[in-house]
Amino acid sequence: MTDGARCDECGYVYDDVGTPDIAPRLRALGPSFAAVLAHEPAGRLRAHPLPETWSALEYACHVRDILHVQRERVELMLREHEPTFTPMGREELVTRERYNSQDPVQVATQLTDAADRLAELFAGLSAAQLARTGVYNWPTQQLRSAAWVGRHTVHEGVHHRADIDRVLAALA
C-alpha cells in the first residue's frame, strides 16, 4: 500500500489522514479498543468463529504490539539514516506470546498506553522529522517516511478494529 492508496477491505485512504491528524487518530485507538475489551465477555473475546481468523483478543494484542514496534521504528528513523526494519513476526507472536490467554483488561490498558506514547511521539515531530525515511518491508520492501509509518499505523488500528467487529458479529 502506498501513499494515496485505499484499503479495499476497510476503505481506509492514506491521503485522508494529514500529518496533523496522525497523533489524534493514534490516540483515539486506545479508547476504541478499550471499549470493546471492557464490555465483551472474555469468552467472546477469545472465540474463533471464523476460519483462519484471529480472535478479537488476538487482534487487540496485535495492535498493541504494532504500536510498540512502530514507535521503535520511528525512533530508529530519527537516530539513523534510512534504517532497515526487521519484520515483527506477527504470526509467530500470536502463539509465542499467547495472545488469546492474556487478560483483556490489561491488554486494553497496555494498548491505550502504547497508542498514547506513539501519539506523543508524532505530536512532537517536525516536518523534517516526519520526512525521515526507513526501509519498510510491507507490502514490499520500500523506503517509507515517518509520516507514512504514522498513517500506516492508523490504518492498522482502524482495519483491525473492524476485524474485531466482524469476529464478534460472527458470534451473534
Structural class designation: mainly alpha
Unreliable parts: none
- Write down the secondary-structure element order: HHHHHHEEH
Instruction: Tell how many strands the DSSP assignment holds.
Output: 2
The major beta sheet can be summarized as: 2 strands, antiparallel
Share of helical residues:
55-70%
What's the rounded overall pLDDT mean? 96
Q: Tell me the Rg in angstroms.
A: 16 Å
Approximately how much beta-strand content do the residues carry?
under 5%
Ends: how far apart? 33 Å
What is the spatial order of strands in the main beta sheet?
Answer: 1-2
Shape: globular
- How many H/I helices? 7
Q: Which key phrases capture this entry?
A:
single chain; 172 residues; mainly alpha; two-stranded antiparallel ribbon; 7 helices; 2 strands; 62% helix; globular
Folded structure, characterized:
The chain is mainly alpha-helical and 172 residues long. Helix content is 62%, strand content 5%. It has helices spanning 19-39, 42-46, 56-79, 90-96, 104-123, 127-130, 146-170; strands at 133-136, 142-145. A hairpin with a 5-residue loop joins strand 1 (133-136) and strand 2. Helix 3 (56-79) packs parallel to helix 5 (104-123). The longest helix is centred in the C-terminal third of the chain and has 25 residues, at 146-170.
The gist of it:
The protein has seven helices and two strands.
Layout of helices and strands:
Blueprint lengths: L18 H21 L2 H5 L9 H24 L10 H7 L7 H20 L3 H4 L2 E4 L5 E4 H25 L2
Antiparallel strand pairs: 1-2
